[in-house]
Amino acid sequence: MAEELKIGMIGTGRIARVHANAYKTVQGGKLVACADVYYDTAKSFANDYGLDSYTDYNELLARKDINGVIIATPNGLHAEQMIAAAKAGKHVFCQKPIALTLEDAGKMIAVAEETGIIFQIGFMLRFTPPMPQVYETIKSGKIGDIVAIRAAIFGWEPANEWFYMKDQGGGVILDTLIHFADLVRWLGGDVERVYSEGGAYILEGAKKHKSPDNAAVMMKHTNGGVSSLFVSWTTGYGNFFFEVYGTKGTISVNLLEKQTSTLFIKPNNKESASGWSYPDLVWSYGYSGEQQYFINQILGKEKRGQATGKDGIASLELVLKAQASLDEVAILPINNAGA
């Protein structure tokens, strides 16, 4: 059996555990180390997954046996850590958003190109069934030209205050809607203008930092189609609805109410909760799919091209303009930074 690639995790919070769990099914790569500025958090994570731990990510990057890293830290730290990793010769998987400014994102893309590393952004929806099939259906022309895309996205209430802070997380548009900014670009093409409404309706953190916890964003694509996206941190639903309307047909995805399979555990089974449940597609397949693609790119088994740094900066421009539109009550043009 070929030797597995060795991967390090920078940041050991909630999303890091999602990625670590994904590696239970990823072939060709394994986690070997983690780093977090909080000693107890890093140690707990390391104990749970059988890893070496550090409080300084530069110590992790100094290890010659590590081939790549996953950056799963607060959004405002991505640029500094990614650039350091690239300069250390490590391939980089970076959680979304790529950064909080276009300037930082541009620097990250430049260093990736200079060093020749793999640089992938955490847009797991590209790898979540049935979205790859939706992409292929649209590109085949079966539903004709895209007239409209409509989505409702239900994220979870933030677990940490930094999510609300404009210089760290950015609020629900930058942190959560960015998944769908990428998705509608991928499926519907480039965007030429954006308009937003919303606000801090419920969550105290959002009110404190004047960042939205609910928002509606309208995007006009250069090909004439329109995307209408609603994003919420306060419903408690999780998951999403997604619809694509074309000149010849329609695609509807409902991962809020429907999944592809169900599981029933009898009440007398003491090893697990009883009743009906299902393997959620995003959590069970999307995250493992994107990590497998990351490993396969490093191994040369997949061509580069999915969820790239350029996809990251293009989606960042959309959400930054969407937030600015909300702040300024204006319809703002898009320059297509990733083109």
Task: Summarize it.
By secondary structure, the protein is α/β, with parallel strands linked by helices. It folds into 2 domains: 5-124, Rossmann fold, CATH 3.40.50.720; 125-278 and 307-333, Dihydrodipicolinate Reductase, domain 2 (2-Layer Sandwich). It has helices at 14-22, 39-49, 57-61, 78-87, 102-115, 131-140, 172-188, 204-209, 281-299, 309-328; strands spanning 5-10, 29-35, 52-54, 68-71, 91-94, 119-121, 146-154, 191-199, 214-221, 226-232, 240-246, 250-254, 263-265, 275-277, 332-333.
Describe the overall structure.
With 339 residues, the chain is of the alpha/beta class. The chain has two domains: 120 residues, 3-Layer(aba) Sandwich (Rossmann fold); 181 residues, 2-Layer Sandwich (Dihydrodipicolinate Reductase, domain 2), CATH 3.30.360. Helices cover 36% and strands 24% of the residues. The protein is built from ten helices and 15 strands. A seven-stranded mixed β-sheet has the order 12-11-7-10-9-8-15. It has a six-stranded parallel β-sheet with strand order 3-2-1-4-5-6, with helices on both faces. Strands 13-14 form a two-stranded antiparallel ribbon. Strand 2, helix 2 and strand 3 form a beta-alpha-beta unit. Helix 1 packs across helix 9, helix 5 packs antiparallel against helix 10 and helix 7 crosses helix 10. The radius of gyration is 20 Å and the shape is globular. The termini are far apart.
